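User: I'm putting together a small comparison set for a docking exercise, and I want a reference complex before I start. The sequence is below, and the ligand is magnesium ion. Could you produce the 3D structure with the ligand included, as structure tokens?
Assistant: Of course. I'll restate your input first, then give the structure tokens for the complex.
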Amino acid sequence: MSQAKKIEPLVQFEMVNLTLGGPTNQVKILQSVNLNILNNTKVSIVGSSGSGKTSLLLLIGGLEKATSGRIKVNGQDLSTLSEDSLASFRRDTIGIIFQSFHLIPTMTALENVAIPLELAGNMNSFPMAELELSHVGLENRLAHYPSELSGGEQQRVAIARALAPKPKLILADEPTGNLDGETGSQIVDLLFSRADECQSTLIFVTHDNGLAEQAEHMIQLHDGKIQADSNG
Ligand SMILES: Nc1ncnc2c1ncn2[C@@H]1O[C@H](COP(=O)(O)OP(=O)(O)OP(=O)(O)O)[C@@H](O)[C@H]1O
Ligand SMILES: [Mg+2]
């Protein structure tokens, strides 16, 4: 493998624009975004409400298609992938964590982590899920339903679910937004250490500047444009 290949960023945006809405009510969501995110780094995205943070994560995760420009993730140009290939790209490469946890209420903590692994064809899903839950300190909560867990515990289940397939890239949209300050800061510490242990790159959105500054790479959005990029 050539040297140039080895240092290729995990995520690359070249002049990316995202425009949504119909012909009469077009909204420019993201404009002329250029971005390089290196493998095995922690990246925070900040910016006021409506600045485009969630939209940026959706583009990186292939959940939204750019209107123009080029997005490469893990060496693949996302615009060239069919819907099926995009779905496998997401399954194989990306783990997603949301502000509101998004756990399935009728499944236990263990099932919430194991079932997605099983659906992805993993033969060892329950033991893997149990191990992953022990990594986030929930070995005594396996049979609890989400409603029987605290907010911080629910987010730890969501982290275990996202990390169990050992994705190259973890996308977290305000993972601490529904938690108090102290629990939020514990969750970020846990995300950082699990990302290190799994050798995953972590990109997270936060409104908390203190948490954002813990990342080695900070990106600030304003009105759909990059206002500041500590690696830019
Ligand atoms: N499907 C859509 N159609 C039209 N406009 C949209 C659509 N989705 C989002 N927007 C607009 O795009 C802009 C950016 O939204 P986005 O959700 O990315 O912001 P955000 O920075 O994540 O905000 P918040 O901090 O409130 O979560 C907003 O002005 C929003 O109204
Ligand atoms: Mg958002």
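The first strand starts at residue 11 and ends at 20. The two ends are 26 Å apart (CA to CA).
User: Thanks, that's exactly what I needed.
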